[in-house]
Design a protein that fits this description.
Strand content of chain C: 5-15%
Structural class of chain C: mainly alpha
Largest interface: A-B, 37 and 46 residues
Number of strands of chain C: 3
Strand order of the largest sheet of chain C: 1-3-2
Distance between the termini of chain A: 13 Å
CATH architecture of chain C: 2-Layer Sandwich
Shape of chain C: elongated
CATH topology of chain A: Translation Initiation Factor IF3
Distance between the termini of chain C: 99 Å
Order of helices and strands of chain A: EEHEHEE
Chains: A alpha+beta (104), B alpha+beta (146), C mainly alpha (263)
Helix content of chain C: 55-70%
Shape of chain A: elongated
Number of helices of chain A: 2
CATH superfamily of chain A: Hypothetical protein apc22750. Chain B
Oligomer: heterotrimer
CATH architecture of chain A: 2-Layer Sandwich
Number of helices of chain C: 10
Chain lengths: 104, 146, 263
Amino acid sequence: MIITNIESIPNRKIVDHFGVVSGSTVRAKHVGRDLMAGLKNVFGGELKGYTELLSESREEAMDRMTAQAKSLGANAIVNVRFSTSSVAAGAAELYVYGTAVKIV
Amino acid sequence: MVDIIFILTPILLGYIFGSIAEKNHYKSIQEREKKFMRLPTISLKTPLNPDNITRSRLVVGNVVISVDYFKRVLAGLKNIFGGNVTSYETLVDRARREAILRLKEDAKGASEIINLKLETSSINKSAKGTIGSIEIFAYGTAIYRK
Amino acid sequence: MAYIPKLPDDTVNVTNSNFIEEMLKLVVGVSLLISVAFLVVTLSTSLIVENMSLKTEQKLQSLFSSSLEIDTNSSNKEVLYLQSIVDNLNSCAKLPYDITVSISNHKEPNAFAMMGGAIVITKGMLKEIQNENELTFVLGHEMGHFKHRDHLKGLGNGIIFAMISLFVPNSFVENILSLNALSYSQSQESSADIFGIEMMLCRYQDTIGSASLFERMSKNDKWSDFLATHPDFHTRVLEIKKYIKSNNLPATKESRELRYSFE
């Protein structure tokens, strides 16, 4: 599955398109990461735990979007966009969407 | 009097360690930016050169950075009077540049990265709504040539 | 389209300001601002409260006294003894409402003046008191709070500071507010001490026993809770003695014995 965030795939032709597909995950952080964050909030610096958490969540969201596109028979997703929102204290929803297409 | 020590210590620790961490981070950022100088990364939607493209894929980079306690207190006080919150400027600058560098690292072997987009979200420690750390997420399409 | 590899100027997005200087300026600025606001608020509430008519004060106190459930028909001899002293003092203080006194079983030495004209004195405090003069001073001090309408001032101030904390939810601001509040309550306590001395003069025509209780308590260590809102005992003893000396008040008679030993 080819995924890009531009409107077409260079050197390929789009023959069919299947509409918008999306994937989302809601992730909550756990206490362990929170403790490190507490310390880092005094000393400053990268919160690696959170970075990994959000990065994994996005990957999972993209996998869900890919699965949805596959089920439609698409072999590429174009014009992919991301959106992050906090839904509850300590939980964030990661949403990715794009247009599923068939390319040759 | 003892309470004042409890308040001042994290502020002082934050200032010292935060400044050191920031300096080191900037050094690393500048080194890597020099290394990746030859990899064009643009926000245009079309490749610079449409010939010989073999493949393209989505590349991403993200980072979550927290600002030290000294800067946070400074920003909180500045909030009362309004104006530029200069203490957070370096936070956003560092995070943005770091996210873009990680995106470039994800695109190993690519000739260029197009349609660069950035997303910022704040991660607060739910303490009176003070913004403590932010996440910057960068994504784009990497173009590979023969 | 040719790409020209060049590094941009990376200093445009950060201002190289001196943060320590900025922090100092902000801390001093906020402290001054809040302290000035504190002054203005306390002066305003004092003005309003002090110019309140006796009738209004009476009405406010009666609003609260009905909810206190004080047993005014207590046949406890000790309470009646305390009440007799308080009634005697009220004839000097001339408050527009009755003051009732009751004993609380708490072991920590303390005395309270509550809205509604009620004085509560703990068993712990009664244990520390060694003669009637010291008892009169403590009761007179609490009457001082009523005379100066400290509760009403406290209520007024409290409302306004709660609003400030709501609009400016900053922990540093709250710290400055509470520091100011502590010093304000300490000055109220000093004024109440002076009133206690006046009550001694009224009842005994003498000031013996005004400072002796605090002098003893200052040698002991277990009053840290008490000391948060009151000035420390050394200071109070010095202030009381200074007031007596500078006004040439008599301090010669013998202290009167307690009618009951409060054990």
